[in-house]
Amino acid sequence: MAVVEVTIVPLGTGETSLSQYVADCHHVINKYNVTFQLTPMSTVFEGDLDFILKIIKEMHEIPFDKGVMRVSTTIKIDDRRDKNGTIEQKINSVKEKL
Amino acid sequence: MAVVEVTIVPLGTGETSLSQYVADCHHVINKYNVTFQLTPMSTVFEGDLDFILKIIKEMHEIPFDKGVMRVSTTIKIDDRRDKNGTIEQKINSVKEKL
Amino acid sequence: MAVVEVTIVPLGTGETSLSQYVADCHHVINKYNVTFQLTPMSTVFEGDLDFILKIIKEMHEIPFDKGVMRVSTTIKIDDRRDKNGTIEQKINSVKEKL
Amino acid sequence: MAVVEVTIVPLGTGETSLSQYVADCHHVINKYNVTFQLTPMSTVFEGDLDFILKIIKEMHEIPFDKGVMRVSTTIKIDDRRDKNGTIEQKINSVKEKL
């Protein structure tokens, strides 16, 4: 189980607003049974790393499908094998220490 | 107004768990009147860029204060000047398109 | 063709030095015929995105093979389809404007 | 002494090419006596953290000065206090293990 953060940024679009691209990428997520959280700067997934990377690669294609010619995608993987890291466990771990 | 994401990772600590460090860094935030959100992978702030960078620099020192000798800090700034970008506005912008 | 930057950070190792892990990860790269550049903060690849992601996934496993229990891997993809983006072209593009 | 990587990306420019913006940001660097390296994905500095952040904040303003309305800037700080981390030392540390 990994927790994986992704940000997909289309470049050279001519508009400062990117939320329509984010929404279009999220339509990909809805096709899969995967736990995720939308944050102000990214989308965070939890689950099997290969499965999540497959979803991210599909999301990364969306702006190109809409005519964008350059996409900058950042993926941050937190892969922990001594413990079952999940979105909820990570947040709770911090909160109970606050 | 900028939206700024930060992740502070102590290196060479000998333990895989980092939540105590995150919690300690958050005690810095509580000293300030600043809007923020804890995500599974980071902390996201909104507000004046210089003010947020000042808080982040103070947070970055916390692991060193606790004896850590190497800290990896990632800061991602989303600075928009045509519109008042906030945490709530960014999330809502996507949600209303879904 | 994409240009892809990767950083693989083992967590909880008990030592601040990480260069041995970076060197071990690089032994994976040497098995493949791929163009790459070592930078002070990362490794940068150029080539087919799927091929590079395959190499990165193999590199990501190396610290686990050596007993590490948590690995933080960051991947940054610059995927351009209007032009053949390469490491050399990106650097030269900037240098000729300086 | 810290090693700090920065990437400054103007959004909504209408052109996929960003090298002119990178070059313009580099004119800021030339005003200062600072060690840096241009990589295919970023600029890497070494030196005093506060000094480098001051330079980065000045670079971050350059696209706005040229009319851009949204800028995404990523800063990655590798701050080591048990050893004098430099660009050269980091690269050599890996190379001598290869």
Number of domains of chain A: 1
Q: Structural class of chain A, please? A: alpha+beta
Q: Would you tell me the overall average pLDDT of chain A?
A: 97
Largest sheet of chain A: 4 strands, antiparallel
In N-to-C order, the SSE pattern of chain A is: EHEEHEH
Helix residue percentage of chain A: 25-40%
How many DSSP E strands of chain A? Answer: 4
Which properties best describe this structure?
Alpha-Beta Plaits; alpha+beta; about 30% strand; about 100 residues; homotetramer; 4-stranded antiparallel beta sheet; elongated
Walkthrough of the structure:
The structure is a homotetramer. By secondary structure, chain A is α+β, with helices and mostly antiparallel strands. Chain A has one domain (about 1-95): Alpha-Beta Plaits. Chain A has helices spanning about 20-30, 50-65, 85-95; strands at about 1-10, 35-40, 45, 70-80. In chain A, strands 2-3-1-4 form a four-stranded antiparallel beta sheet. In chain A, a hairpin with a 4-residue loop joins strand 2 (about 35-40) and strand 3 (about 45). In chain A, helix 1 crosses helix 2 (about 50-65). Chain A is elongated, with a radius of gyration of 15 Å. The interface of A and B includes residues 5, 37 and 78 of A. Strand 4 (about 70-80) of chain B pairs antiparallel with strand 4 (about 70-80) of chain D.
